[in-house]
Design goal:
Number of strands: 14
Largest sheet: 12 strands, mixed
Strand content: 25-35%
Radius of gyration: 21 Å
Distance between the termini: 42 Å
Helix content: 10-25%
Length: 238
C-alpha cells in the first residue's frame, strides 16, 4: 500500500499554470527550469512561473474552488482524496498538497480523474489530427459501446473599440469565452465530432433508422449535453 501511495504521490508535481502547448511524454517539458530532476521511471519534478503576461477577465477554471477528487491509474490503483480543480484554459488539473499548488507530470498514466460527480480522461489521441488545444483532458459523459466525450475550451476574446462615424464602444480588455464540443466513439472505431444529426447518423454502423426517428421525436439538440447524453444512452440500449 505504501508503494502504491508513493507512486501516486510522485505523479504529482510542484507547479502552477504555465504549461507548454506541445505535450511530450519524453524528456523535460518546455518551460521547466534547470533545476528539474528525474525522480523515477520518467516521473520528473519542475518549477513553473505563476505570472500571467496579460490580465484576462473571467475565470480559466471549470470552478474557481478546489474540491475533493480522486485519481485512478490504468492498473486500478486509486489515490486518496485530493483537493483539485480543472484549469480549462491551460488544460490541466491543479492539485493542492500542503502549501503548494501542483500539476500532474504524467497525466497519460492516469486513467480517470473523479471530481465533482464528473469523470475526466486524458487522451491526446482522441482527436490526434487537430491542434493540441482540442486534445488533452476530456469529460467522459457516457461510457458504453458508444461513448460520449465533452471537450471544454476557454477562448480569448479582445473587446476593442469600433471606429465608425457614430463612435464606438469596447473596453480594450481580454475575456474568456466558453466553448464546448462533443465527440463520439464507437468501441474501437475512430472518434468523430457530434455536430449534427446527419453527421452523427453517418458514423453509425447499426440502428440508423431508429436513431433518426428518435432525434426527430425527442427534438435532440447537438449543442446540449443533456440531449446528447439521452441520445447516446438510447443508442446503447438498442
Amino acid at each position: 500500500m505504501k508503494q502504491k501511495l508513493l507512486f501516486l504521490t510522485l505523479l504529482i508535481l510542484a507547479a502552477s499554470v504555465c504549461f507548454s502547448q506541445t505535450f511530450s511524454t519524453v524528456g523535460v517539458p518546455t518551460g521547466s527550469k534547470v533545476e528539474s530532476t528525474s525522480v523515477i521511471d520518467g516521473v520528473v519534478t519542475h518549477s513553473y512561473s505563476n505570472t500571467g503576461k496579460i490580465p484576462i477577465n473571467g475565470t480559466p477554471f471549470l470552478s474557481d474552488y478546489f474540491d475533493h477528487g480522486i485519481l485512478e491509474l490504468h492498473d486500478g490503483q486509486k489515490s486518496g482524496s485530493e483537493l483539485m480543480r480543472y484549469n480549462i484554459a491551460k488544460d490541466l488539473f491543479e492539485i493542492v498538497r500542503g502549501n503548494d499548488t501542483l500539476i500532474l507530470n504524467r497525466p497519460y498514466a492516469v486513467k480517470y480523474i473523479y471530481l465533482d460527480n464528473k469523470v475526466f480522461v486524458f487522451d491526446p489521441k482522441l482527436r490526434e489530427n487537430v491542434d493540441r488545444k482540442f486534445n488533452g483532458y476530456f469529460q467522459l459523459c457516457v461510457d458504453g459501446k458508444l461513448s460520449l466525450f465533452m471537450k471544454r475550451l476557454k477562448k480569448l476574446s479582445f473587446d476593442n473599440f469600433v471606429s465608425n462615424y457614430q463612435g464606438g464602444s469596447g473596453t480594450k480588455e481580454y475575456y474568456y469565452i466558453d466553448n464546448v464540443s462533443f465527440i463520439g466513439k464507437i468501441s474501437d472505431g475512430e472518434p468523430f465530432l457530434m455536430k449534427s444529426s446527419k453527421k452523427f447518423i453517418k458514423n453509425l454502423t447499426t440502428h440508423k433508422a431508429e436513431v433518426k426517428a428518435y432525434i426527430k421525436d425527442e427534438k435532440i439538440k447537438f449543442n446540449k449535453e443533456e440531449d446528447l447524453v439521452r441520445l447516446v444512452n438510447y443508442y446503447n440500449s438498442l
